Amino acid sequence: MLIQGFNTIFSWVSTGLLVFTVVAFINAAIHREDAYRAAGKNTKPFWLIILGLAAVVMGLFPILSILPLIGLVATIVYTVDVRPALKEVSGRGPGRRGSSSDGPYGPFRR
Length: 110
Description:
The protein is mainly alpha-helical. The protein is 71% helix and 4% strand.
C-alpha cells in the first residue's frame, strides 16, 4: 500500500517535470535565432537538442536515475539563465520601457 503511494507520487512528479521540460522546449523554439546571439547564449539548435533530449530521457527513464536529473538541470539552466536573457533582448523582459501603445516620441494620446 505504501509503495503504491510512492509510485503514484513519483509518477506525478515525473509527469510534472516532463511537462516543465516540454514547455521549456516550446519556449526555446519560439524565440528567433538572432536573439540567442544577441543575448550571448548558446545557439538555438543547441538548446533545442539539449531540451529535446531532456524531454525524451524524462519520458523513458525513472526520475531517480541520473539521466533525468541531468535533463532537469539543463531545463533549469535554460529557464533561469537563457530564457530571461532572451526576453530582455526581445523587448519582453523586466527591463522593458514603455508600453505597447508608445510611439516613437512617447505614448499616443487621444
